[in-house]
From TrEMBL:
It comes from Oceanithermus profundus. It comes from the Bacteria. InterPro entries: ABC_transp_permease, LivM-like. It is a multi-pass membrane protein. It holds the Pfam family BPD_transp_2. This is Branched-chain amino acid ABC transporter permease.
Amino acid sequence: MRNPWTRTGNYKTSYAQDTTIFATYSEQASLVVFLIGMLVLPRFLSRGDMQILDLILIYALAVLGLNIITGYAGLINIGHAAFLGVGAYTAALVAPYLPFWAVLPVAGLVAAVAGAVVGIPALRIKHLYLAIATLAFQLIFEWAVGHSPALEQGGAMAMPRVVFLGYKVGFKNHHYFWYYVTFVVLVILAFGFRNLLRTRFGRSLVAVRDNDRAADAMGMDPGRTKVFAFALGAFYAGVAGALYAYWSRAVVIEDYSLMISIKFLAMAIVGGLGTLVGSFFGPAFLELLDINMETFSYWIKTIYNPPGVDVGSAIRPLAFGLAIVLFLIFEPRGLANWWRLLRSYFRNWPFKY
């Protein structure tokens, strides 16, 4: 008889069992323990640590959307930060009239419409040409915001303070409140991301990524699938943009520039394209790397800083670029593959087979 707590063999006799999320009760228990740990974690962190953790969770939500577009559908997207910007500016415009819990889906839907429009060129072009099309959308977005008086021409647009259950979120509990809001939204959308491949739409994404002509021959619509991927990925990004706008208390065009799009793409690569855990590992790794390199650069300046050469300021971009190159060379499947190997080791321990 199969042990419901440990894997002792392959006893799956149906497709439903093969596509189940949790293979054993121990996996369900570990998830519950992890969620409880994340809920009580803020009690042990300072306000500065919470600020970093909030940013990682928001970026993880954005990378989830990018993984749908690039990881699942195989469509290179260099304008993902523009989708966040669409969601953020939508939130800034409607926040004075709607509660925050209604602003988030509205921002996601507006970004989804923008994503569907950007996905239209995918009906005829792909690979490098599609990447240039997404780059063009990024530049058009920055130009449009920079020349729009209604959006302060890219200047700061203030976000109102949130009132929840009659209680106004103030300065002291700002990061703590948005941590829990972002965490709940992330869990919901991550559950949807995990279940995407269990649907015919998710399987269509993978089929189109592997070979769109073969997918067309099997009755799938590659064009509609690509547009769907852009729309769904942009929805995730729009929600993340609205959360970032509330969290940062203002919307500024510099937060949604081309460099941020490249940063999201790097997070997806480092974490592992097309993986759920990689969407968490990538933002956490690069954000913590950037923070530590900033501290290290200050330390370098105090020891060695010759006239005319700013050694300390070069450490952060050097570490960022070096991390991407090293992962592409030595671990193209990202940190998610390390997690897979670690789980496999403890699943088989103490046996070697």
